[in-house]
Amino acid sequence: MPLENSGPQRRPGLARPAVVSFEQAPPISVPMRFFLAAPLFGVAAALVVLFEGTGIWISRWSAGTLALTHLMTLGFLAMVMVGSLMQILPVVAGAPIRHVLIVSGTVHALLGLGTLALVDGFLFRHVRMLRLALMLLAAAFIVFVGAAADSLVRARNATITVRGMRYSIAALTVTVCLGLLLGGARAWQLRLAVPRITALHLVWGLMGWVGLLVVSVGFQVVPMFQTTPPYPRNLAAWLPGLTFATLSLWSLARWIGTGSVPARDVLAALASLLGLGFALFAVTTLALQRRRRREMPDVTVRFWRIGMASLLGSVLIGWTALWNPGAVPPPVELSWGILVIFGFGASVISGMLYKIVPFLVWLHLQASAGGRGKLPNMKEIIPDRRAGIQLDLHVAALLLLTGAPWLPGLLTYPGAAALGLSNLLLWANLFSAYRLYGKNLAGRCG
Amino acid sequence: MKDSICSVFGAHHRHCDDLLNATENLVHRGNWPGAETSLRAFVGAMLHHLDAEESILFPAVEARTGQVWGPTRIMRMEHQQMCALFENMRQDIEARDRQHYLGLSETLLTLLQQHNLKEEQVLYPLADRALTGEISGLLQRVRANIAPEP
After folding, report:
1. DSSP state string for A204-219
2. Which of A9, A23, A159 sits opposite B63 (nearest CB)?
């Protein structure tokens, strides 16, 4: 029946194609509020290293390390990833986030405040702040996961990217639930298997949420925006699903693991397999980048190279640690974390920001100018030279901080300084781009 | 594999991308006469592509889905933005303004890629689903338009 009044031109009897729309591309303030907040959390991370000093590298369980880790993962990585998803879901899924203004404002505020409260709770052992943080972060992710899942379910065409995003959002949900448990254990003195839950929490967060999102989006965007040949079809089709399956099996084994020798070997084998998938992605990406069709140097390509090299390095460290009997020394664990979070995650994300932000500013200027007047192009919105200096500072910070757990006295303070400066410059680069948008608008209206 | 809107239009996207990158490389190296010829080939291929979409594909999709104000409207708008950039790039080559050209080609490349992403991920699959039965006839008309120039 409903077909009869659904437009004269459609042939009866055919299913109505999904209504898609690119129209609801959100206002520029939606992603920008996330992008501009992220480097400030990076600066805060640098301040934590400065104030904690060399003591921060004593163990990965120290209050300072927990604060530093969550400033980078929640404040930097998740902040940008959430903002980008709000922007690109309409593009890749054809299904925009509903009520995007309310959702983005709420998530931004809850995630930002929740992260600050969590860090305060860690550093100063304020139990009340910790409890507040857990509530804020739980609310932030309930709203975000709900909105993103709603959009991904509506996506009619389940492309590799859409499927990868579904895995990634599922992994985020697992990460958040485990994180809330761990926080709960701290805030309410619950008796839980903290080391075991922590292992699951960090693997689901780093390899599931961050790793799967980068991999499945990378399959699509690296060939397009970095002008490389496409990834091998089978790799793109199978890697996200297999990674997710291995991750689930590993978690099961880790959870019920008895500690016996065969059980440990199964666990190590599954973890090695997980690493192999990411190593394959990193090596393939690096090989494809060597065959890119543009001769112009490109800051995004360079950021991704650093990201892939770090990913590869972290897999190699992981393999060595897995198959070596005996406890892993703290500096190995810490360097591994820095390589994954800062070397892989933050590099790849910074590289993407240098494509997304100048383009968004250009696009919104176009829309508001209606084609009149001379508008700045992308390289005038963020000049290569300024992006390049920020990249150099980022590399310096990465090298210094990866070495810092081994040579704390020598490298900790220069590493913190480089981290702070790099994030300040990233913020300045993004902010001046955004301000250009405002200025041009004002110029036109005034 | 059977030809589809995804495969035919997608392949032509890659063809256009290659021409754009080739032009940029020539400008980067300072080969202005080469760049001028290459840009002409690129813009020619692009105009054929945009025309095949606007005069054949989009009307068919709009007729079948009844969505005249839907995604095709945004696509047409972005086509206009591209055409404005083509013209500015031509002027830059004429004026031998390397720096400005490279900024424009970065902008056009990004505009093109996010546009292609939307078409290849959402619009073409939608068209392939919505236009079953008409596809081979439609593609025949399209081929006359976007067959890569000899």
Report:
1. IIIIIIIIHHHHHHHH
2. A9
CA atoms of A205 and A219, how far apart (whole Å): 20
**CA-closest candidate to residue B83, choices B35, B50, B34, B116:** B50
Looking at CA atoms only, how far is residue A381 from chain B in angstroms? 9
Q: Is ipTM beyond 0.85?
A: yes
A438 vs A12, more confident: A438
Show residues of chain A in contact with B22, CB under 8 Å: 293
Per-residue DSSP letter, A197: H
Helix A79-93 with A212-225: angle, nearest 10 deg: 60
Q: What is the pLDDT of residue A438?
A: 80
Average pLDDT, chain B: 90
Residue A74 forms contact with B (CB below 8 Å): no
Q: Which residue has the tokens 């020798």?
A: A261
Distances (CA, A) of A348 to A212, A287, A343, A421, A424: 13, 16, 8, 18, 18
Rounded to 5 degrees, φ, ψ at A10 are -80, 140
What pLDDT does A10 receive? 35
Predicted TM-score of the model (pTM): 0.91
- Over the stretch A374-415, which tens digit does the pLDDT of each residue have? 789 999 999 999 999 999 999 999 999 999 999 999 999 999
- Could you tell me where the beta strands, DSSP code E, fall in B61-146? none
Q: Is A446 on the interface with B (CB under 8 A)?
A: no
